[in-house]
Amino acid sequence: MTDVVARELSDGVGLRVLQQEDAPELAAAYARNRQHLAPWDPVREPGWFEAATQQRVVAGQLTALRAGEALPLVLVRGVEVVGRVNVTGIVRGAFQSAALGYWLDAHLNGRGLMTAAVAAVCEIARDDLALHRLQAGTLLHNEASQRVLTACGFEPIGIAPAYLQIAGRWQDHRLFQRILHD
C-alpha cells in the first residue's frame, strides 16, 4: 500500500503514508501551526506538540493502518511534514465507506495543494481501498475547506448539529460525501 499511495503534488510537496519516523517532524508541524489549526481542531493538551506524544499517536495510527481501519497520510516537502490527510473509520461490508480529514501548513494555503491531495486520496480510496463513499465534515464557516471538497466532487448532504467538539465547544458541521463509483 505504501508504494501505491505515494504521489507528487506540486511546489515540491508529496503525499505518502505516515511512517513512525515522521513523529518528530509531525510534532514540529503541529507546533508551527498551533495558532492556525486551533479554530479547526479539538483543544490540544500542551503535550500534543511534543515528539513523544506524536510517537504514540503515530504508532496507534499505524496499527489502524495494518488492521485496515485507516489510511494515515502525510504531506511532505523534503523531510518536513507540511500537512495531513487521513482516511479513518473504514467500514467494510455493505457500507464500504470512510471519513476524510485534512489540514495544511498555514504558509502553503491557497496554492491548490490540498485540493490536489484530496483528489489523489479519492482515487486511492476508490482504486486501492475499494471504497464506495467518502464523507467529510467542515465547520459551517470553513469556506476554504468546503471549496476543496466541492472541487473534488463532494456534495453537501446536510448539517449535523453539535457534531464535534472543536476549539472547546460543540459545533455544527456541514457534511459532504463523494460517491466513488458510478
Automatic annotation (TrEMBL):
GO CC terms of this entry: cytoplasm; ribosome
Tagged with keyword Transferase: yes
N-acetyltransferase domain: residues covered: 13-175
Keywords, alphabetical: Acyltransferase, Ribonucleoprotein, Ribosomal protein, Transferase
Segments crossing the lipid bilayer: none
Recorded GO MF terms: protein-N-terminal-alanine acetyltransferase activity
Highest taxon in the source lineage: Bacteria
Cited PANTHER family: [RIBOSOMAL PROTEIN US5]-ALANINE N-ACETYLTRANSFERASE (PTHR43792:SF8), GNAT FAMILY, PUTATIVE (AFU_ORTHOLOGUE AFUA_3G00765)-RELATED-RELATED (PTHR43792)
Family: Belongs to the acetyltransferase family. RimJ subfamily.
Protein name (database record): [SSU ribosomal protein S5P]-alanine acetyltransferase
Organism from which the protein derives: Auraticoccus monumenti
